[in-house]
Design a protein that fits this description.
CATH superfamily of the domain at 23-103: Cytochrome c-like domain
Strand content: under 5%
CATH class of the domain at 23-103: Mainly Alpha
């Protein structure tokens, strides 16, 4: 009995600390359900955050393009699967914050395949 109580308690604490550790941007990403199609670096339904940042890196119009795409949705940039627009409960300022965060995404450093001999 005590073991199951402790197990339940430790699971609850690990979930709550993960939620508390999330940044404002990560919380917005979840609030907008962006995580249903996008991840940091593993391809799923939509492009990764790394791929989006890489594609638009250096484009002076990137913020404007992506803010509009996040708000109203779109298709054709990454294949045939259309991206739905964001619900109206997400404000324009929150979209600006999300787009800035996505564009600042840097890829993980690649591990060297060469081993010291």
């Amino acid at each position: 009995m005590k073991f199951s109580y402790l197990l339940t308690l430790s699971i609850a604490f690990s979930i709550s600390t993960t939620a508390l550790a999330a940044s404002k941007e990560e919380k917005l990403f979840l609030k907008g359900n962006c995580n249903n199609c996008h991840t940091f670096s593993a391809e799923t339904v939509g492009p990764t955050r790394v791929a989006i940042a890489d594609k638009y890196r250096g484009d002076p119009n990137a913020h404007e393009i992506l803010e509009k795409k996040v708000r109203v949705g779109g298709s054709g940039s990454w294949g045939v699967m259309p991206m739905p627009g964001t619900r109206s409960t997400i404000t324009d300022d929150e979209i600006k914050t999300l787009v800035k965060w996505i564009l600042e995404t840097k890829p993980l450093p690649e591990k060297s395949e060469k081993k010291a001999k």
